[in-house]
Design goal:
287 residues; alpha/beta; two-stranded antiparallel sheet
């Protein structure tokens, strides 16, 4: 039944994403009504997350953030599906990189890079990054439970010359690339919740004690990589701009947890400025 359900979803998605994004946003508007009102997709999770993250805001302010979030979330759904049928040229126009010269400089210096980003704005459209740099772009992922959706997402993330690699295989990938003298940019989404058994560190994030992954820090320190934070901004519907912020050019010898605390703090600053663009349906504090 799981397989049948996936293929129904897949072929419907292939057909409807032949439509331009302008038309797909009408579908997003309809999805908003379903997910926000009837009966509300993970609404209790979102309400709880907002109240805990922003204790100083009134219920009216939180309700305003919540509505804006669900509208953005529905846009994100159709934008992700549109990856099935969108050209690299159109995607590059819609997901712009402001300062690729930073990567040019690090590439010329022979530096490998850890790119830290999050479930903020549209992280799936960052798959166009290989068009802006000479780096081999390696988004590091954790497999989805549903094998069909896992393969589906891997195909989408590989369309624009990206080379997705499972977290369990990233060290082998680094060693292979270094042996072949290939400069690698390793992208890690750093705001996910580790399984309870894998929690090694907690920090303060959005007014809450929060377990965080240490993968980005461990890779950077072990191989003395530069660390860049990817700051994505939503300009308007269907258009984003990304700025690469150099957090560390060299990481060897840095104090333990310093890299992690730095990128977590930067993400918090961005979320506080525009909270509606973060993925609040995620059970980030389930432990």
């Amino acid at each position: 039944m799981e397989t049948v359900g996936f293929y129904i979803f897949y072929w419907i998605s292939r057909v409807i994403t032949l439509l331009p994004l302008k038309a797909l946003y009408l579908l997003s508007d309809f999805l908003f009504l379903l997910l926000y009102y009837f009966p509300g997709y993970r609404r209790k999770v979102v309400i709880t997350n907002h109240r805990n993250a922003f204790p100083g805001k009134s219920e009216k302010e939180l309700a305003d953030i919540r509505i804006k979030f669900y509208r953005h979330f529905c846009d994100l759904i159709v934008e992700t599906l549109k990856l099935i049928n969108i050209s690299s040229e159109e995607l590059a126009e819609r997901m712009n990189y402001e300062n690729p010269e930073l990567l040019d400089k690090l590439f010329a210096e022979g530096r490998d890079v850890v790119l830290v980003y999050s479930h903020y704005c549209n992280w799936e459209w960052t798959s166009i990054l290989p068009s802006f740099t000479g780096y081999k772009c390696i988004p590091v992922y954790r497999a989805l439970n549903n094998k069909h959706f896992d393969r589906f997402m891997l195909r989408l993330r590989s369309k624009n010359k990206g080379t997705p690699v499972a977290m369990s295989a990233v060290i082998r990938e680094i060693l292979t690339n270094r042996k072949d003298n290939v400069k690698g940019l390793y992208g890690l989404i750093a705001d996910q919740t580790p399984p309870r058994a894998e929690i090694q560190y907690r920090t303060r994030f959005l007014n809450q004690d929060t377990p965080v992954y240490l993968g980005a820090e461990k890779i950077a320190l072990k191989y003395d990589m530069a660390v860049i934070f990817l700051n994505i901004r939503k300009l308007r519907r269907g258009y984003y701009s990304s700025k690469m912020e150099l957090l560390f050019e060299h990481t060897s010898g840095l104090e333990k947890y310093f890299v992690t605390d730095t990128h977590v703090k930067r993400l918090e600053e961005i979320i506080v400025q525009k909270p509606e663009h973060w993925l609040w349906t995620h059970r980030r504090w389930k432990y």
